């Protein structure tokens, strides 16, 4: 019986050094955008940035919608040599243009950070501090999906945003239909 160990070792030696092992990692950072592309700064204390790339059209579309100052959390392959992040999944985004106060006739929504929101009822002055998270909407890339959670429940809404107005279409937890809509104007 012949020993194939020597042949296996030779083949492994010739092939394995040329094989690149892709390891997916979670990442989070700030977006910088210019006419060349979309970049992610992983360390807030650094000017180093990695080019964001993806082979997925939905992710490419989402990256194009982000603006300088936005936040991105996701999963991807970071290549430190090429200074790239190959994005395979977007977990959440933080939209800098959402930060601030927005008013309706009955409520004030103040987005104080990329994950904290206070809602003040204009009639009762009742204040709710709420956590929220935003994800891309794969079914309609012009919208975002926002999860709004307090200690009792989590609500899901479709978020449309422009510079002066946002619309939150809250979905019914049972059937997914639109339950109610809140339209807010930017506080001046």
User: What is the distance, rounded to the nearest whole angstrom, between the alpha carbons of the first and last residues?
Assistant: 85 Å
Number of strands: 13
Q: Determine the number of helices (DSSP H or I, runs of at least 4 residues).
A: 2
Largest sheet: 8 strands, antiparallel, barrel
Instruction: Give the fraction of residues assigned to helices.
Output: 10-25%
Description:
With 188 residues, the chain is mostly beta strands. The chain is built from two helices and 13 strands. The strands form two sheets. An eight-stranded antiparallel barrel has the order 6-7-8-9-10-11-12-13. Strands 1-2-3-5-4 form a five-stranded mixed β-barrel. The longest helix is centred in the N-terminal third of the chain and has 11 residues, at 5-15.
Helix and strand topology:
Blueprint (H helix, E strand, L loop, with lengths): L4 H11 L9 E9 L4 E4 L8 E4 L3 H9 L5 E9 L4 E11 L5 E4 L3 E5 L4 E6 L5 E10 L7 E6 L4 E8 L3 E7 L6 E9 L2
Parallel strand pairs: 3-5
Antiparallel strand pairs: 1-2, 1-4, 2-3, 4-5, 6-7, 6-13, 7-8, 8-9, 9-10, 10-11, 11-12, 12-13
Keywords:
single chain, 188 residues, mainly beta, OB fold (Dihydrolipoamide Acetyltransferase, E2P), 2 domains, eight-stranded antiparallel β-barrel, disordered N terminus
């Amino acid at each position: 019986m012949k020993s194939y160990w020597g042949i296996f070792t030779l083949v492994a030696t010739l092939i394995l050094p040329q094989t690149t092992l892709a390891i997916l990692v979670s990442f989070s950072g700030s977006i910088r955008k210019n006419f060349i592309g979309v970049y992610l700064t992983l360390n807030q204390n650094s000017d180093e940035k990695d080019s964001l790339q993806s082979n997925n059209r939905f992710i490419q579309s989402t990256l194009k919608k982000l603006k300088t100052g936005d936040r991105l959390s996701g999963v991807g392959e970071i290549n430190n040599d090429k200074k790239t992040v190959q994005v395979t999944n977007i977990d959440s985004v933080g939209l800098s243009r959402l930060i601030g106060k927005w008013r309706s006739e009955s409520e004030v929504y103040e987005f104080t950070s990329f994950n904290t929101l206070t809602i003040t009822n204009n009639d009762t002055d009742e204040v709710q501090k709420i956590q929220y998270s935003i994800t891309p909407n794969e079914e309609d890339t012009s919208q975002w999906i926002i999860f709004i959670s307090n200690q009792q429940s989590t609500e899901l809404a479709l978020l449309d945003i422009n510079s002066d107005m946002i619309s939150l279409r809250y979905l019914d937890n049972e059937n997914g239909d639109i339950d109610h809509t809140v339209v807010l104007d930017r506080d001046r």
